[in-house]
Amino acid sequence: ARNRSTPSAHSEGISTHGGNGHIYRYNVFEDIEGTAVLAHLDLTTYNWEVYGNLFIGSGSANFSGTSNGSVASSSHATSRNIVGLKGYNNTFYNYNPTGALNSGFGALSSVDSGWDVQNNLWVHCTVGSVRFPSVATGTHDYNTLLGCTQSSGTVQGANETVAADSDPFTNSAARDFTLLAATGAGATLAASYTTDPLGKTRGADLVWDRGAYEYVTLYVITASAGANGSITPAGAVSVAGGSDQTFTINANTGYSIASVSIDSVPSGTPGSHQFTNVQATHTISATFSAGIGS
User: Fold this and answer.
1) Nearest to 165 by CA among 145, 191, 142
2) Are 140 and 118 in contact (CB under 8 A)?
3) Order of all β-strands in the sheet with 144-146
4) Whole-angstrom Cα distance, residue 56 to residue 175?
5) CB 94 within 8 A of CB 123
6) Each residue of 3-34: b (16+ CB within 10 Å) or e?
7) Which DSSP category does 102 fall into?
């Protein structure tokens, strides 16, 4: 989604008037300008969920960004506030490149409450700051800011990372915001938040990453078979951390399985073997002998 506006025009990407239980997930918001990307304008609203989204700035010289925050209530009035908001595992890239504005979660201390902001990733916010809920409005932790500045007045979470600008993405220039490597460990959240926009399971490799996309560690299982038989699949097999992988062993006609070794340990003569919840590299090998086994 894109729009064209200025903060003074008080536009936004999506605005709401009342209603409860708003869920915004797995969206791409690019070059949204005005009050906020997601803004609440009127009546008290309860229980928002904002997770797995991409908020992207193009870097255009004309892009002025958002004033109250990427996600925000629009007014200090108690009749226009958000009570209960979960902001989890979103990625913010190149937001507010020219405007000295805000790309965070704009909880207004006098009216909003119950906000929880965790596991988000901000990268390359060249100007402006990242707003977090204050103690009065909610909690925040396990967020990472690379080349971004946190707004004054909010205490940094014990597990938050603020570091120099870097690019942790596969190819940000081509809008590929998957991760090159695991991030600092994020918080483990409820089951409803365990899937990223690509369907990957968060934390399957024992690290719940920060940002919209989960990095999945790949482990290699090397499978080999001697003469007169086969193992399937064979060779160097890449397996996503936390998943299972089954190997099937077959002897040629007139032969039988003589031995199967798992990580160099003899393990009998099974016709198959499953590695479960893979969290390390492994080997499996099989040998065969003439004749039909008993």
Assistant:
1) 145
2) yes
3) 28-30, 54-56, 91-93, 121-123, 144-146, 161-163
4) 9
5) yes
6) eebebeebbbbbbbeeeeebebbebebbbbbb
7) B
SS3 content of the chain, % helix, strand, coil (to 5): 5, 45, 50
Cα separations in angstroms, 265 against 44, 50, 232, 268: 64, 48, 19, 9
Q: Please identify which residue in the block is written with the tokens 């081509």.
A: 174
Residues 132 and 118: beta-carbon distance below 8 Å: no
Residue type, 290: A
pLDDT in tens, 245-281: 999 999 999 999 999 999 999 999 999 999 999 989 9
Q: Report d(CA 96, CA 125) in Å as an integer.
A: 6
- Other C-beta atoms within 10 Å of 283: how many? 14
Q: Do strands 54-56 and 28-30 pair parallel, antiparallel, or not at all (unpaired)?
A: parallel
Distance (Å, whole) CA 177 – CA 146: 14
Entry pTM: 0.79
d(CA 124, CA 179): 15
CA 227, chain centre distance (Å): 45
Q: What letter would DSSP give residue 8?
A: G
Q: Is the peptide bond before 197 cis (omega within 30 degrees of 0)?
A: no
